[in-house]
Each structure stands twice: as C-alpha cells, then as structure tokens.
Amino acid sequence: MTKLMRQHRCALLAAAVGLMAVAAPQIATAGPKAGSTYQLRAVVPVACWVRPDTTVVAQTGQSGSVIEACNSPGGFTISAAYRPLKATETARLTYGERSLNLAKAGNMELRRSNMAAIRTIAYRFDEVQLEESLVLALTIQPI
C-alpha cells in the first residue's frame, strides 16, 4: 500500500466518523413527535346474516332461537317469507318481545333494528291452526 492510499483511507475513515457523529443525534430523535397526527381511512363492507337454530316450522308450542347479525350502521330488518295462509288458517308468533299474527299474504316484517347488532332472539308459536305445514324462511336486510 502506498503512502498516498493510506492517507486517502484515513481521510475517508475520519469523514465517515465525523458524519456519524453529526447524524447520530438526529437518528436518535427521529420518530413520532408530540402533536403529530395521522389520517387513517378504512372501508368496511356491510355484512348481515340471520341463522335460526333449527328449521322454523309453525306448530303450537314450537320454539327456538335466531342469531341476527348485521354491521350496517343504519340498522336492519328481519322478515319472514312463507306460503300464503288460507282464509281459515292462523298462527301467532312471539318473536323476541313482539307477539304477531302471521299475515295471510305470506310475508311480514318480524323486527326492525335502528343500529348494527349481533343478537340472539327467542321465538315461539302459539295458537297455530293450519291445514298443512308452514315453514318460515327468515331474511335480513340492511337499512
């Protein structure tokens, strides 16, 4: 190694050490500062489902529960669809706190929520007078 190369190496090493000494305090203080703000934006898709514990069949004394889940901030509705009732047929359904006579048309709203929720709702059929079996299909719709 020549004397010139050795001096060149020493000069580079000294410059590197000097640069590190100057930069080290700034590196140590890097990071979030008090009063900093961040903006975070996320889009969450609306997801809703209704799940009865068993097939919902209208029979006197038949009972069960339904899990309702919907993250729509505006709430949701739970509806029942079934075959139209004949003029002589009736069925009374208690769904949660509501007691309802099933509509003859074969479709009715059972419950309306004004906020997102996950709940288990009990149901029970009373005073059922049917000529043929009646199965209810439950649906959930975000508002």
UniProtKB/TrEMBL annotation:
Keywords: Signal. This is Uncharacterized protein. Residues 1-30 form the signal peptide. It comes from Brevundimonas guildfordensis.
